[in-house]
Design goal:
The complex is a heterodimer of chains A (473) and B (250). By secondary structure, chain A is α+β, with helices and mostly antiparallel strands. Helix content of chain A is 29%, strand content 24%. Chain A contains 15 helices and 20 strands. Chain B has one domain: NAD(P)-binding Rossmann-like Domain (Rossmann fold).
Amino acid sequence: MRDALPGRQVEWVEGWGRAAGAAGYVYRPTNVGQIREVLELARSRGVPVVLRGAGRSYGDAALLAEAVVLDLSEMNRILGWDASNGVAQVEPGVTFHDLWRSVLADGWWPEVVTGTMTPTLGGGLAMNVHGKNNWTRGTLGEHCLELTMLLPSGELRTVTPETDGELFHAVIGGFGQLGVIVGARVRLKRVHSGRLEVHAVAAQDLATMLRLADDAKNRWEYVVGWIDAFASGGRSGRGLLHFANHVKADEDPAAQESLRAEAQDLPARLAGVVPKALLWRFLKPLTNRPGMRLINAVKFRLGSTIGNDKRYRQTLAEFSFLLDYVPNWERVYLPGGLIQHQSFVPVAEAEGVFARQLELCRRAGLPSFLAVLKRHRPDPFLLTHAVDGFSLALDFPVTASNRDRLWRLVADLAEPVVEAGGRFYPAKDAALPGELYRATFRDGQLERFAAIKERTDPGRLLRSALADRLLLP
Amino acid sequence: MTRRFAHALVIGASSGIGEALARHLASEGTRVALVARRGERLAEIAGDINRAAGEERALTFAHDVCHRDEVPVLLQEIARALGGLDLVIYSSGVGHPVSFTEYSTDKDVDMIEVNLLGAMAWLNPTAERFWRLQQGTIVGIGSVAGDRGRSGAPAYNTSKAALHTYLEALRNRVGRRGVKVVTVKPGFVDTPMVADFKNLPMVVSADRAAAIILRKAGRGVSTAYVPARWRLVSLVVRSIPSFIFKYLKV
């Protein structure tokens, strides 16, 4: 008879959207030796292992019910930093926050950051995250020079695009299914100011949104759009776009000052008065359909009148980390939590597919509370989510009464994406039926991934709820 | 508010109230693990459930509750097989008939083993787990027989009285973190345990008892008499002074 795992390790772990959660046996190692011990413990008990960083994937990427949860957030040292060439050697639990605060004063910024600064780089590489500059800079994985991996066999392996391109391009974006990323060398980009030049414009409909975003993609490094998903008829898809470029050295007299990490700190109070930590409590009464319809309409009205065609400067943190602006905002969706669905559609099909998705949401009586548009380009990773096109990310509240309808809606939203040759983003996903995800890979990518998994983890020790759902037939 | 359960474990699910609870839970869509000594009987029940559901909704684990050392790993295995665990019901129980002049330590020990120590073996790790997770419901099937020491069933009464006290203490431990512990006190339920007794009052079917128990568990009440009128009966019985009670043939 096998021994039980220690009951004291049991914790409830959730996705960021808090609509998916499970009990697991959580271990937080701080070095490779401890990771090895945890893998061995799990193997000896016949229990699978799920890898977890900061838990900032919205859905079930870092969850598996009753598994050993290998939480790497405490293995978080920056082991090396070379300010002459902008290359950092990091442990997997280093967050975007840790990284930018350490390097900004030297005039560097991560090539790619997510909408919140809290994810870990290990998790970011495993999900191959992107930011608002996906068209110009690609995904996080494209700026990784070298990975150190611990395979479930206990073998430590250093992988680069040159030495083992196949494994490198499968591990990045491989949702932690091939091995444990225990270290990474990443390249950052030179910045001369801690501020961005931002241009805000309004678009009265979806076609205009897409055209403006496409026109901007080569002139602006960052391109992001917000869509009022409640608007219907001829106004469907209306929204606001924000474009941004880094301020050049000669354009900012206070450049040096703005590169101090403290100059980037997001204000703790709204209008200098309301502590932002409390803000989500004020938003909660509005987190329902009438309330969100009102917020979306007011936001568009302001953005399309006094805010339209405006240029201004924002700090890097202010522009980049909108999701950190209201701390704990995800709590407004409790008790049911939220899910997000993000689909990536080739340029030519985007307008048709997104118009249909917005219509499907309205018809189902489940309009998205927050809809975000971005421009993307393909990347070289095996299970990449990106295409030469646009993505539309849709946030939905989950309630006891809408859950079944919402899961059906996600499947309905996904079908036109598959038909259009699009893709989905596992870091955001909680509800996509596996067959629709798998249908987006038509060139044997899944078979190649399975073959690599068979080599690196033949005992299938590494699993996640997401991988079980999306990858297993 | 009555909550529904996603993943449940019923220990003592091969007959009587436990079987009825497992069937009820499954019919409401709950994935349920059935634990009892008789693996074949469990397989029959699970087969019925799964055929009716059209999917694998019931899982079986053969286990003798006297084998307490098996419990920690089995509990984890069950939670893993179910994909979670939010309700644990301890329903195993034996009530050996003893005559008025019989003093059988073997029978008494067996009743204490099954009715009390087995419950502790299963509910201790369950309580630890639910305490850490700050959620979950524990149900212990006690009995109105545990409310008094009757001449006809000293050890059975003791086992149930001790179980009630243990459950109350668990509730006082884990209740402060949102975990529910429900003490169920059935009256006479039409199960194999009472098959030999004739002319029992207020008998309900196991099915009816299960429906009541699950409703109470969903509400997370502290103590549930099944059916509710036994609360009044028990109140009267508990109020009878000992110097009178000792002459009663109950």
